[in-house]
From TrEMBL:
Signal sequence region: 1-21
Residue ranges constituting the LysM domain according to the UniProt record: 52-98
InterPro entries: LysM (IPR018392), LysM1-like (IPR052210), LysM_dom_sf (IPR036779)
Keyword field: Chitin-binding, Signal, Virulence
Superkingdom, natural source: Eukaryota
The keyword Signal appears for this protein: yes
PANTHER family registered for this protein in UniProt: AM15 (PTHR34997), PEPTIDOGLYCAN-BINDING LYSIN DOMAIN (PTHR34997:SF1)
Protein's recorded name: Carbohydrate-binding module family 50 protein
Species per Swiss-Prot/TrEMBL record: Trichocladium antarcticum
Family: Belongs to the secreted LysM effector family.
GO molecular function term, any single one: chitin binding
One Pfam short name: LysM
Length: 111
C-alpha cells in the first residue's frame, strides 16, 4: 500500500495513483504504481454529445471562451444549459462544452 502522504501529494498535483500487483507473502513481485492524470470535472448539464471541452480558468468569461473557440453565446448556452443568462456562474476548474458532434445527420434509406 502507498503511504498516505504520497497519495495526498499525488492528489494535490492533480494525479491519481492506482496500485496493482501488490505482492503477497509468497510473491516476489514488486508493487506497480500507475499515475493517471485527473481531468477537470464537467459543468453539470453539459451536452451529452459534446466532443470538445475547455477548462475554466480565472478571468475567463463566456465572451472570451466563445472568441477562443469560434462559437456563439447561443451555442455555449445551448450546450451548457446551467450557465446563467449573464454568464456569471462559470466555475474555475470545471470544463464547459464548446463543440458537439453533428446532431441532425440523417441519411435516406430505401429498402
Amino acid at each position: 500500500m502507498l503511504p498516505t502522504t504520497l497519495l495526498s501529494s499525488l492528489t494535490v498535483l492533480g494525479l491519481a495513483a492506482v496500485t496493482a500487483g501488490i505482492p503477497t507473502a509468497t510473491s516476489s513481485q514488486k508493487p506497480v504504481l500507475t499515475v493517471i492524470p485527473i481531468e477537470d470535472p464537467n459543468m453539470p448539464g453539459a451536452a451529452a454529445r459534446c466532443r470538445k471541452f475547455v477548462s475554466i480558468e480565472k478571468g475567463a468569461t463566456c465572451i472570451s471562451i466563445c472568441n477562443e473557440n469560434k462559437i456563439t453565446l447561443d451555442k455555449i448556452r445551448a450546450w451548457n444549459p446551467l450557465i446563467n443568462e449573464d454568464c456569471t456562474n462559470l466555475w474555475i476548474g470545471y470544463r464547459v462544452c464548446v463543440g458537439v458532434f453533428f446532431q441532425d445527420l440523417m441519411w435516406p434509406f430505401t429498402g
